[in-house]
Structure prediction request, 191 residues.
Amino acid sequence: MILPVVKYGHPILRKKGAAIEKMTSEIKKLIDDMFETMYDAAGIGLAAQQVGHAVQLTVIDVRAASKERPSRLEVDGKAVDVAEYMPLALINPKITPFGDPTKGPEGCLSFPEIYADITRPESVEVEALNAKGERIHFRAGGLLARAVQHEVDHLNGILFIDRMAGEAKAEIKAEIETLQAETKALLKKRQ
Ligand code: ZN
Prediction:
């Protein structure tokens, strides 16, 4: 089922997600629906907050962008094929970003048509549970590292606009304010 994606201005985007204690049928259904929603919106990542659930769950699939923006992946110290590791659900992820600060373009399904360069560490070490509830541990670089950091920020109520340099943020300030006002007006109407 394709779920509505909440836009900037919705308070749930600022909520830290609760840890998922048990793999219930509801969580499994939410994972399936989040993948369907992400693919429908042509995104490469989606966090539970973006579909109205403040829990520690995100889905990622970088394959669609892999030609222009490569990723690297290491599991148990060995380089593995990124495509074979996709799609990826991360439950209760713990991440340690490392490596040189790297600038790259980012967008977000909760900020339609707003893009900006964001600087983040080039790589990330990740520990999480996957969609089957199995413990996974990997190191990622390139686009996958960026996607993981963007999505895990969402799980902590942090948005990519918080990571933008002052100049980049100033450029899109008017668009962000318009989006926020539209979302708030829509929420008010629904009450
Ligand atoms: Zn996002």
